[in-house]
Design a protein that fits this description.
- The complex is a heterodimer of chains A (501) and B (447).
- Chain A is α/β, with parallel strands linked by helices and 501 residues long.
- Chain A has a domain of 193 residues: Spore Coat Polysaccharide Biosynthesis Protein SpsA, Chain A.
- The longest helix of chain A has 22 residues.
- Chain B is α/β, with parallel strands linked by helices.
- Chain B has two domains: 173 residues, no CATH class; 149 residues, Glycogen Phosphorylase B (Rossmann fold), CATH 3.40.50.2000.
- In chain B, helix 12 links the parallel strand 11 and strand 12.
- In chain B, 43% of the residues are buried.
- The chains are: A alpha/beta (501), B alpha/beta (447).
- Chains A and B meet through helix 1, helix 5 and helix 6 of A and helix 7, strand 8, helix 9, helix 13 and helix 14 of B.
Chain lengths: 501, 447
Amino acid sequence: MKLSALQQSYLGRRSNSFRSSGPLDSSSDGAFKSPAAVFWLVLHGLSCLISLLLGFRFSRLVFLLLSTSSTYTSPFHSPTELAKTLDIRSVIPADPVGNVPLPFPNKTATNSRVVVGRHGIRIRPWPHPNPVEVMKAHRIIERVQTEQRLQFGVKDPRKIIVVTPTYVRTFQSLHLTGVMHSLMLVPYDLVWIVVEAGGVSNETASLIAKSGLRIIHVGFSQRMPNSWDERHKLETKMRLRGLRIVREKILDGIVIFADDSNMHSMELFDEIQNAKWFGAVSVGILANSANIDETVVEKRGEEENPRMPVQGPACNVSNMLAGWHTFNTLPFAGKSAVYIDDRATVLPRKLEWSGFVLNSRLLWKDGDKPEWMKDIDTLDGDIESPLDLVKDPSVVEPLGSCGRRVLLWWLRVEARADSKFPPRWIIDPPLEVTVPSKRTPWPDTPPELPSHKKPVIGIQEPIIKHTTKTRTSRSKRRSKRKHDETRTDRRTTGFDKTLQN
Amino acid sequence: MPVSSSPPPILDSSLCRLLFLGSRDSSTMRKCLWLWGLLFIALGFAWSITAERNPRTERISGSAGDVLEDDPVGRLKVYVYELPSKYNKKILQKDPRCLSHMFAAEIFMHRFLLSSPVRTLNPEEADWFYTPIYATCDLTPTGLPLPFKSPRMVRSAIQLISSSWPYWNRTEGADHFFVVPHDFGACFHYQEEKAIERGILPILRRATLVQTFGQRNHVCLNEGSITIPPYAPPQKMQARQIPPDTPRSIFVYFRGLFYDVNNDPEETSLTPLMSGSGARAAVWENFKSNPLFDISTEHPTTYYEDMQRAIFCLCPLGWAPWSPRLVEAVVFGCIPVIIADDIVLPFADAIPWEEIGVFVAEEDVPKLDKILTSIPPHVILRKQRLLANPSMKRAMLFPQPTLPGDAFHQILNGLARKLPHPKSVYLKPGEKILNWTAGPITDLKPW
């Protein structure tokens, strides 16, 4: 009975799927006791008592010492060394000499007749990642993922033709970099048609040249006007210009309008591959509504349907196009921005161009295209929305699970019309700004600042490296220039704060 | 009608005229003869080649679909002995956990055979005889099967069938098969040394054993045994599928124990898992700091999903060479990396494992990263394509209800391939080969 209890206790200590092999091998169900079994029982009881006294598993040590006398299949050290190597954790990192098969401490107490090859724990001399192998593995991962995309992704992906109207201004870098990086991540072939108001400029050209994409950069003779309405009209004309390029060059693919102030998700480019002729996606509208919060909150309490900042196709129950969601501009009525400089909300058009994609074959002069497509040469000027390109708006295909997925966001943030920025965003001292405009957002700076800038920068670097010693001297210098509210000073306080932390 | 010398009389018959294409001329006749001769030789070649090739194509078929889709119905007949329920149903009633652990194949095989078209109620026409014993259903509280009573149970069952039916004594079990999915098969012990000491149960030595354990040159693997995969719950795995376009971003994946940590608080040493192999411990020590190897002992809830995001899944041997990881890897499309020397994988004569998985010798574990990264990408893609074959996945599973090409059918196919029984298995009257009293004394006690 005791044996079976012992056995149960051993077995009970096993985790779910793995076994332990105690030194006392549990034999078959012990319903009978032989003298040998009794002897072992007595011995076990004795070692239990000794263990209680000593505080550790005495029986293990005894068996280990006893087992050194029998033969093994694996090499073993002397018993004393063995006792030391009981703590295998410390041994392993300390002994990385060659492929030394390390001894495993307490197994093989019996003569092992295991035939299959058993080696010790083999550890290589430098058990850390090999950079060459890591690079190879990454290449394999890439190849596998490409194959997965080929098999499960879009079949026969078409080229994407991106039409972007832009012009040189302060926020151009911000916006255009965003679009550029999104396009660089697109896994399909791409052609980027950049139409620039005010003619082709080096500024824009240098910015987009960094992308490595195939770019068609054309200029548009008019300059960007200052009122939003006019701007929208001009942008429409610029987009038509882009479409005309598609027609001239007979580009084949899907045309998407990527305004430079928008943010695109990567799923958008996968989804538009599903467009057959003319598709529409939902656009999230992020209109800055800073000033009208109170009215909005009131109205929201009354209304039942919350206003969605989304523009796009709306479907009926059977997933057919039923109409259009547009952004509700009523709360902003009368308070929207008219001019670029206004601090009011900039409103989108009823239907933004960026929410529509079309098959480039619709723009070709000849070729089989559906008869509901108007010829773009016949239109000029006043096209309110891209739906004016088609005779029948019901042919538009809703994409993105019928407009339920918002795949891009519209946001119009621009600086004031007269804002200045260093060309190509490189501060080339000395700055040639001689007459600071009163209407720039930057506070007035004393004219001698540009010459002080460089020495200030130069002194601050070594100061950072020393720790608290020079803090007092720096604070003295700080008090001298207290009245200066320059960006550099702000930077100083920033550094100071970090040092204090 | 060509005018020529009068033809010999034998060629006057219409058949000959037909054969020789109506020609009477001797030279054209000779040409025709040559043509026919060549045709016969070619036919003979083709026949011989196809006759020879059948076993070979079954083994090395590249698409892994040919043999896997064989239909065993009509190729064999199985008679299921009606044993008293103390051998099967009562045991299952005592512990229903047996239906979901990795040894559940024995129970599902019984159920499958009861309703399968290969079952025959007439034992005279049966090719194979099945004895439904649930020998692996005596579970500890933690769910591990205790094999101590199994030899006695099997003995008692065989005593019953040999006394009630004449078919056992006819061949001393050579046309009987048993499902023994336990760790070391019919050696009925979970510790390797003990299992080897016991060897296969003497009375089962002539029978065909359907077992999960497979290792070459091992006492517990009989020649002619059928190796099957361990049971893995098919519904659970199907329910956790992720979209196939989720990119595989984990290079190597493994979850499980590396060291056998005894639950002793004062035990400072860590036993490397299992009978001295150290393969798992070597994997851990060499690659624990490698970001490409996602290995740990945690039990994450996203285990199945993670496997579907991995390219290679390690299947190192633990306390026995086989493991359910192989089944999981195949079902989830992860290339299995088998680190077990001399292992015999399930249905090895039907599934081309070399083409599907990667075999790494246990001593080469420190170089595992080099081995895996030096596989050319097109080979990796090919392995993934083979794994994606649905018949491959089905062959590893025991679905309920049964599907064509699943593991049950593969077992039947394996049994069918062993037919017809050689005449030597039929014993002459009075001849006895098996020693009924062999084995440890404890096995001879009645059950």
